Amino acid sequence: MSVLKVEKAKVFNEVITDISADKSISHRCALFSLLSNKTSLIRNYLQAEDTLCTLSIIKSLGAKIENENGVLHITPPIKIIEPPLVLDCGNSGTAMRLLMGFLSGAEGFFVLHGDKYLASRPMKRLTLPLRKIGANIDGRNDGNLSPICIRGAKLKPFDYESPIASAQVKSAMILSALNSDAPSFFKEPELSRDHTERMLKGMGVDIEYEGGKIVIHPIEKPLHPLDITVPADPSSAFFFAVAAAVVPNSKVVLKDVLLNKTRIEAFKVLQRMGTRIEFMQKEDRYESIGDITVQYAPLKAVNVSENISWLIDELPALCIAFACASGVSSVRNAKELRIKESDRISAVVKNLKLCGINADELEDGYDIEGGTFKKAVFNSFGDHRIAMSFAIASLLSGGVIEDTDCINTSFPNFTNILKKITSVENL
Ligand code: S3P
After folding, report:
1. How many domains does the chain have?
2. What is the C-alpha to C-alpha distance for residues 267 and 46, in angstroms, rounded to an integer?
3. In this predicted model, what pLDDT tens digit does every residue of 62-105 receive, in sequence order?
4. Is the pTM of this model over 0.90?
5. Which residue has a Cα nearest atom 3 of ligand 1?
6. Does one domain contain both 224 and 308?
7. Is 258 in the same domain as 138?
8. Whose CA is closest to atom 11 on ligand 1?
């Protein structure tokens, strides 16, 4: 079990060019390349545990993957292979849920499983709507928990209104609609990240927003292969944005980051708190991409209760900024935090209390009062984003984070970058 020791940081001014590639887009690149009949080219695919699991899975389903000077060439099989072994999604809810949608309409028998954390995350949010359209899908706890078993079937078109704004649910349902006989309709309570819609549209799927719903037309002719460079992940970049926002007089430039509005809301919250942030868009093909400059300024408290799905992954890191602000910050309508890689409401509040910060846990969020950090030993709860958030908190007064192997699920380069701005030791 790895342990990370972080020393208190001095002022820093860094240009960071090696933030890891976007996790959500990388998973989709691997999976969506199965939808074309030609070779997809993927540059800057995220080389982290979660997304490498997805590559292994598409290989088991028959894809041929070649790495030529860092560019992945993914050639899909003519027909999906029924894999002899279970498909290991590692720690990734995105992989498991998107595959549930995709494989429910494929021919064959498939078993999805993952690590002990993924084994406790709810899958009923997909099992139920997928069963309604004819999927043969099951698992422990009546299909709610993995291992998830699927016998692919011909699926019916649907008109589904999801009770949660979840890009994983939306993407899985969209994938399940592609081999149907007629258009399907999907509605969500608020827009969740929209990479699936953008990428599938780019590949030639007839998918559009109409009257508040997404209309998905079944695939009628072969899709174009992907030819894409995965941008840096704003959720990973955000850890260093918070570092610059809380270490007095510091500054970072985060290069070539995905600027999709559904992914940079946490940067906007930091801006509202007083941090000086500039976005400089450099390209806009499948997605908007550019540099983000973040410069320290004193922080004031903020209330966050809207567009929660646009910053759900960044809330643990944002809490560190709340704890440095003057006044009490609050988060509401965020009960989804409880079913992420860990219960992120309870994990954040427990760790903040350990370093002397006043924090109150609520069912759907928390209240955090700005204060002075003291040195502490933090638990990662096996969750990469908790581990990295408290590594950033440790820049303020020093700290030790236990059980940090999980960082490799999304951002293996995190510790190296942190080393550039302070003194870090792997114990
Ligand atoms: C993701 C969607 C979000 C997010 C997760 C990645 C995706 O989950 O928290 O890290 O790539 O679609 P939900 O769909 O559960 O909100």
Report:
1. 2
2. 22
3. 999 999 999 999 999 999 999 999 999 999 999 999 999 999 99
4. yes
5. 167
6. no
7. no
8. 24
